[in-house]
Each structure stands twice: as C-alpha cells, then as structure tokens.
Amino acid sequence: MGHRRKLLVTLIGIFTSVTLIIGAVAIGSLYQITIRQRQADLEHTVRGQARLMEAVAKANLAELPADRQAAIALTLQQFSDAHQRFAGIGSTGEFTLARRADDQIVFLLGHRHGDRSDPQPVGWASPLAEPMRRALRGERGTLVGLDYRGQTVVAAHAPVAVVDWGIVAKMDLAEVLAPFFRSATLTALATLTIGLLGLAILVRAVNPLLDRLEESEGSARAELEKRVEARTAELESSLRALRESHDFAETVINSLPGIFYVFDADGGFLRWNQNVERITGYNADELANMTPLDFVHEEDRPMIAERVNEVFRRGIATARADYVFKDGRSAPFFFTGLRFESASRQLLIGFGIDVSEQQQAEAKLRQHAQRLQLIGDIMEAVLEAGSTEQVAAAVLERLGALVPCQRSSVVLFGDDLQSAHLLSAHGDPNTTLHAGIDLPIGMFGALDRMAAGQANQIDDLGSVTRSAPQQVLYDEGVRSYFSIPLRVEGALIGALNLGASQPHQLENEHIMIAAEVAKPLALGIRKSQLHDKVLAHAATMESRVAERTSELAEAKEQAEAADRVKSAFLATMSHELRTPLNSIIGFTGIMLKRLSGPLNEEQTKQLGMVQGSARHLLSLINDVLDISKIEAGQIEVNAVPCDLGPVINRTVDSVMPAAHQKQLRLTTQLPPGLEPVIADPRRVEQVLLNLVNNAVKFTTVGQVCVSCEPQGESMVVRVADTGCGIRSTDLERLFQPFQQLDSGISRQHDGTGLGLAICKRLVELMGGRLTVESTFGAGSTFSFTLPVWTSEPAMDSPAAD
Fold it and tell me: Residue 745: its pLDDT value, please?
C-alpha cells in the first residue's frame, strides 16, 4: 500500500498547486485591470488639461504679446479660479501644476479633495515628486511612484510647453487598490475554501481507508468479519466528516460578499450561495432551470457566452455586465470565472461583485473630462471665428451641450454702461428678442455686481416683478435665467445670458460652467473688435491710397512724389502686414500638430492649404515691401569686404533639397583663391538665392550650375540652367516690377514678378550690374558683377560713399 500513499500525497500536491496558481492568476489579473484602468483615466484627464492650458496660454500670449509674464500670470489665474470650484477626484485625487526654479520644483497650483493649499517647494534632485520632475523634463505618460508628500501614487504627467510648466493628475495607490483588495480578498477566500474542501475530502475520506487497508494486509481470514464491521464503522465516520466539511463549505460560501455560483459546460447551475437568491429574487427551483445568459440583457449575451467559453478554454476570464433581477431591475457587476476539472466533467466557479459605486465614480470622472474637452472646443471655435457675431454664435451653439438651457444670448454693453446691444441669440427662432436689437440696461440688474465678476440670477421669473424684456421671456416660456459678466482686464464689456423652461432648473454647477466659458468668450470678442478696427483702418488707408493715386494723374512731379510716399508707407507697414499672417501660420501650425484636439483627414488637408497659402502670401508681401523700400530709398546696403565662397555654398545648400526633389543636378564651379568683393553679404545671398530658386523652378531636366570668376576690377557670378529659356521679345520686360512672362489663366508658376526687379536694384546699389543671356528652349544664364575689394577702394565705389 506504500505506493498508494505516495500517489495520494502527489495528488494533494498537484491539487494544492493548481488551486494556488488559479488564485494567483485571478488576483494578478484584478491588480493589472485596476492599475491600468486608473492610469488610463488619469492620463486622459491630464492630457485634456494640458491641451486646454496650452490653448489658453497661447490665446493670452496672442492677446498680450508685449508682456509674456502678464500673459502667463493671467493663464495661471484663470486656471486657479476654475479649480477653486472643482470637487476633486475621489478622496485622495489631486491636480498639481508646477514650474522649475533653479534647483527646486515650485508648485503653482495644488488641488486635493478638501485641501486647496499649494504644496511646499521640493528640491529638483529629491526622490519625491518624480511625476512632476518628468513632466518638467518634457515627458508625458504614467507611473507609480512617490509624490512630494512621500506617498505612493498612481500618476499621469504631461508638459505645458508653451509656458514651461508641468501638470500632474494623481491618486494615492491605497485608494486606487481599494476595489482590488476587496476583489482579491474574495478571490483568495474562495480559493482557500475550495482548497480546504478538496484537501478535507482527500485526507479525511481516502486516507483513513488507505490506513485501514494497510493494516488489513497481514490479518488472517478468520478476522475478516470483524474487519468488515470495523471498516463499516470507519466509513460511517468518514461520511460524517464529509457532511461536516460540506456544512463548513456551505457556511463559508454563504458568508462570501457578492454572489458565488458553480455551473457545468452545458450552463446548468449546480451550486450557488444565498446571495444569488436574495439579490436576484429567484428561488432555488427557478435557479435550477436557468443558465448564466438568463441574468444579462440580450445585447450582452454574446459577450458573456464568449467569456464562458474562454474560461473552459483558458482557465480564467473576467467580464463586466448588468446583472438583471427577477423584477426587471439591474445593476453593474464584475464577474470572475475559474475553470475546475473534476473526474468526470469541467465546471466553472464564478464570483460576482456589485460595482455600482465604482462605475458612478468613473462616470463622474469621464463627465469632467468631457466637460474640459467641450470647453477646449469652445476655445478653438473662438480662435477660429472672425467677427464678434461669429465668436458669440460659435460659443452659444456649443454651450447647450453643457448647460440645459432653452435659449441663450450674448449682449454687449456700451463703453459708458448706459446701453446694451443683443449681439447673438440661440434657441427659439420666433422670439422677439433677436440678434441686432437694443435692450434696456436695467434688464441686467445691478451692474456693479457684474463689474465685480458676480452673476445675476433669477430662479423663478413668475415670483418677481418683471421688466418689459423679462415679460417677453416669460411669455415665451422662460422661467429661470442668469447673466454671467463678460470682462476683459477687469472691464465689463457685456453679459452671457442663459434661460431655462423650468424654475430653479439652472443650478450653481451650470453657473460655474458658464463662468468658465465666459472668459474665452470675452477674450474672443475683444480680439474680433480689435480685428474689425484693424480692417477699418486698412480700408481707410486703402481709400487714402486710391485718392492719392487719382491725384498722381494731374502732374508727373506730383505722381513721383506720391509714389515715394506710397513706397515709404508700405515700407513702414511691415509689422502691421506681417503680424496677422504670422498669427495665421502659427495658429494653423498648432492645430496641425493636434495640440488643441484631434483632426480628421479632410481638416488636416484644408489647414495645410491655409498654412501654405499664408506662407506664400507672406513671401509676396516681403517682395512688395522690399521693392517699396528700394523705391523709397530706405534700403540700407552695408558695403564691406565679403568672401563670396561661403555665401555661394550656403545658398546652394539651402536650395539643394528642392533640386533633389526635381531630380536636378545643382553644382558649383569656384576657382581657388577668390578675391573678396565690396558688397553687403546679406543682400548678395538674397540676390543669389532668388536666381538659384528661379533656375530650379523653371528647369525640369538637366542641371543648374553656379560659377564665379574675376573679370578686371569686378567679380562675375553666373547662374546657368538648362531650363525652358526666355524668348528674345520678353527680355526687355524681365526686370520690370510686377511683370511676369508666364501669365494668364494657364500659367504654371506662381510669383509676383518682383524677384528679378529687386535683384537688379540691389546689385546696382552695391555698384554692380545684372544681365541675362537666354536661348528659348535651351536654358538661361543670369550674371551679376560686384567690385573687387582693394586696400584703397575707389572714390566712386559704394564703400567710399
């Protein structure tokens, strides 16, 4: 019988190992699910906060370009105000905002549940605040580590590159793992129960029988009857032990939190604890005739069936679904299934935990993230809108997704706060309070409260004395409304008004949301107003230019004087003309980088076209400004000794990618020991870059060569190509401003016709001459000369002047 006892020990070891492995796998899976889900939620939140903060900061920097510190301080103040009304994430969740100051991390905003005090600075090399240190190094992601309090947290971090800040959203690991500990305790207890039950059956039932059989091997046949009676007594004892183990297992199973059940591969329930009957409302007879699919909604049944098959196939699986009760009610449950193989069949042991509270917390977190995303979309719409009416309409159209209002409007106040103009309205199209009308200023209550940043609110229009406009609102179904002040740099410019169809329908939460939206709305309106003033000023200037142009026809001398005035005006308007285009290029760049949110393929294509057109327009304006400055005599040429070799090499290197893209050879031929010339290096590079770019542009096959050689007291620079060439009849128009040889609706090359005119005049200002030789269909060679530098420059050279 010794080999039988060894076999029993081996079976016990295998059973115990399998039980422990199943329990460990289940607990490990629960741990990974808990950590990853919380990391994903926190990362989604912090990225939304970072994108929103960058958009606000860029808007403020665009509003205050001359004072970066004030713009940054305004951004910090706006987010500090917004987070004063934020309830936090869980009981330990926290948002922190910080910057690096020398060897310290200085916290700008610390917001924990019930505690809004800013944390103390932490040393940069300290092991604490690792998530913030990574954010300030420009990294984004998630980790589990120590924060500035020395607590282990699950954190998501991201940089706010525009203002060199870092932002962290985190939650204490203890709170994150609380649901895991409950589930792990349940899983461990169930595993222990099954293991103990199996061991009790093996040890208390089989082992006594084996012991008794070993003792009987040496007994005589005469004692067989006595041994039979003894064995019968032992079997009765084992049966009692089994009953006791069964009763113990029943007690443990019924004491487990949540639901516990066992069913076979056919889906028939074999065992369940009392919680199943108590929670579902079904009795034992009803449960015996049901399957697991009967407890979930029809749309969840394919998923649950797949998870059940996964348990029997892989040994373990989890699922989240609504558990449907007998009375039709349901509640979200998290299920864990483990495979158990008996001698004759495979069984599934399942556990279920009600996760209603956890799901509600997750829903609140998602709702907050969606709110931040919607506010970010509103800010993007404000930045994209043109006129003040478009800004207001864009905000009102999106605000309805955040606040349950029947109608909304934006009103602008006069500078003296004695008048009010309804700028835009959203809601009932048949209302008499439509956009474009003037309203009595008294409709908005105490303006001193609004000037101080406080909202005016009426919870029930039916219980107050109504003004004429308020009576109109009441007659059209509005029963409660409030007005949020629109302020820019402390000045009251208007109000954001929201009305609801029920008394007391607009709550404090809605007021806080509207207040957050009011800030970018006010900035957008002010931006549009300034833009309108610039357009009006530009229209006025265009009118003046037209008037001057008509006067030029009266006399040649007056025409030349007016032309110089016009050129001087354009030369001095470089900042005003370039700044709007640079803003367009910058904002489209931000959107193409998806810093303000995702873009679909068509939006990316359209924005790329906008950016390319803006850059092309900026290049054209630069050409116009250059020719205007030349005509106005405002171009400065600093003639100094200049080495042409480095200038030519830099130019060729900058154009080389364009040549490679067209599969052209771009080469240079420079003799050794080039003598320096008297010229302005920057203007020489400008001329050479224009000529080489033109050569590459009009050459489809072959090469472009840049060469240089001395010729008497001058140095000749040539740019030769194998392009399309120029007709002899067009050569006399080649260097005229605004003249293009490739014109008409079939033109293949863009440009203003100013490049060669600018090059010719710049070369002449440096004491040289620009010429061209061309054969139509075979190529062109543009040449320009510059005076060679000597220790005693000639008296009539540009350097002498």
Answer: 38
**Element housing 123 (H / E):** strand 122-123
Strand extents, DSSP E, 176-279: 259-264, 269-272
Cβ atoms within 10 Å, residue 500: 22
Whole-angstrom CA distances from 222 to 218, 234, 373, 774 are 12, 20, 91, 132
Summarize the confidence of residues 415-420 as an average pLDDT: 78
**Hey, which of 84-98, 484-498, 506-520, 657-671 has the most confident mean pLDDT?**
657-671
pLDDT in tens, 590-642: 877 777 778 888 888 787 777 777 776 766 676 666 666 666 666 777 888 98
Spatial separation of the C-alpha atoms in residues 434 and 423, rounded to whole Å: 9
* Strand ordering across the sheet containing 779-787: 665-669, 703-711, 714-721, 779-787, 770-775
Calpha distance 336→51 (Å, rounded): 38
Distance CA 230, CA 223 (A): 11
> Alpha-carbon distance 418 to 505, whole Å?
30
Report how far residue 382's alpha carbon sits from residue 313's, in angstroms, rounded to the nearest whole number. 55
Which pLDDT score, from 0 to 100, does residue 150 have? Answer: 78
Which H or E element spans position 733?
none
pLDDT of residue 801: 37
Q: Give Cβ neighbours of residue 542 (< 8 Å, ≥ 6 apart).
A: none
Q: What are the φ and ψ backbone dihedral angles of 58, each rounded to 5 degrees?
A: -65, -35
Q: Give, rounded to a whole angstrom, the gap between the first and last alpha carbons of the chain.
A: 122
Give residues with Cβ within 8 angstroms of 707, minimum separation 6: 668, 669, 670, 717, 718, 720
Mean pLDDT across 709-719: 91
Angle at 208 between CA 204 and CA 213, to 5 degrees: 155
SS3 readout for 83-119: HCCCCCCCCCCEEEEEEEECCEEEEEEEEECCECCCC
Q: Which residue has the higher pLDDT, 119 or 133?
A: 133
pLDDT at 716 > cutoff 90: yes
E strand segments, 355-490: 407-413, 420-426, 438-439, 456-458, 480-488
Over residues 55-69, mean pLDDT: 84
CA distance 756 to 763: 10
Which token pair is 350? 């399942």
| Burial class, 310, CB count within 10 angstroms (exposed 0-12 / middle 13-18 / buried 19+) | middle
* Under 8 Å between Cβ of 312 and 268: no
Any residues with CB less than 8 A from the CB of 608 and at least 6 apart, and which? 592
Q: Which two tokens stand for residue 732?
A: 């006399």
Secondary structure tally for the chain: helices H, strands E: 21, 24
Read off the pLDDT of each residue in 681-697 and give the average, rounded to a whole number.
Answer: 89
* pTM for the predicted model, two decimal places: 0.31
Residue of higher predicted confidence among 109 and 704: 704
* CA-CA-CA-CA torsion sign (248, 249, 250, 255): positive
For residue 65, what are the CA distances in angstroms to 61, 68, 527?
A: 5, 6, 13
pLDDT bracket for residue 784 (50, 70, 90): very high
What are 495-533's pLDDT values in tens digits?
888 888 788 877 777 777 777 777 777 777 777 777 777
Amino acid residing at 97: L
Supply the Cα-derived Rg of the chain in whole angstroms. Answer: 41
What's the half-sphere exposure (Cβ side, CA atoms, 13 Å) at 19? 19
In degrees, rounded to 5, the angle at the alpha carbon of residue 259 between the alpha carbons of residues 258 and 260 is 130
Buried/exposed code over 327-358 (b: 16+ C-beta within 10 A; e: otherwise): eeeeebbbbbbbbbeeeeeebbbbbbbbbeeb
Q: Count Cα atoms within 13 angstroms, Cβ side, for 108.
A: 24
- pLDDT at residue 345, as a whole number: 82
